[in-house]
Description:
2 domains; 13 helices
Amino acid sequence: MRDSRAENLAKILVGYSTKVAKGEVVSIDGEVGAEPLLRAVYEEVLKAGAHPILNVSLDGLAAVYYKHASDAQLEWISPVTEWMAEKADVRIAVGASANTRELSAVPPERQTRRQTAVGDLLAKMMDRSAAGDFRWCYTLYPTNAYASEAEMSLGDFEDFYFGACLADDPDPLTAWKRASKECERLAEWIQGHEEVRVTAPGTDIKLGIAGRTFIPCVGDHNMPDGEFFTGPVEDSVEGEVTFHLPAVIGGREVSGVRLRFESGKVVDASAERGEEFLVQLLDTDEGARRLGELGIGTNYAIDRGTLEVLLDEKIGGTVHMAVGRSYPESGGVNESAVHTDLVCDLRLGGKLEVDGVVMQENGKFVV
């Protein structure tokens, strides 16, 4: 029996998030565990009069790839993938991992080599998106692996996830527009200011935002959504930040991360777990040691860490910072082959100030 929430989520992804139109080429990418959602998305794309191209990967192939691929194979870019990045009108991607840790034993330098190789494609897609020539959205489909990481049963995680996506709303196509008014208000409030200061346990950091654009995230690129973000001035970041929520990055858990910045650059980095991988990530290229994003979470329906950054970066009462490439539409100009988000929790003794005015305290907005 098909889950009506998966069907509603497909309607949101196609009809609201990416607004698929007649005659457009839509790349639908996902893992085999997401079959119910992929089928529903495929159907909705056809109903919209567009041309779906379905790309489904099998469980465990990523581990096989990194185990056996030569350096030349790691650096090779499929012409099909290249064409999609340059020509597709829309991309809808669905994660459905059966094992979130399958890459834990891969030498970090092999992942870094691959990340560098695909860096130009990432840049092309981000530039096309900023120019309005390419629309994309990323979501998950609940699996036992995600449920296990979140310390929930699969049934409880399904309820949690579909609820966070508003896929249980009676009118799913208008749900995000209705739910995003506060996010849009906060993004408008912060626009035009000069500096953000974040303080929390192990954290006291300042980021310049003068001349940058804050963008409210209302379900058009991520699902679920609920944040507003910008690209901080590249050489402005000063101080230290502790990222309280652990994350799984490239199949590895990285937790207890601390970064210290001087003149916008990471000059010291440590982690309680995954430190070697973290340092390798920061050494990918020159831009990987600078921040490409400051994001402020507004989705209070996501109330706990899940080890899945798509969810955790949206938690109301948190901020996240991404090392690596900026989103051009924010005004950020940092370039890198990486864009990795890490989450700082302000709900227990944290404060976010904008030009000396408290915007958020203990995870609650006060403006």
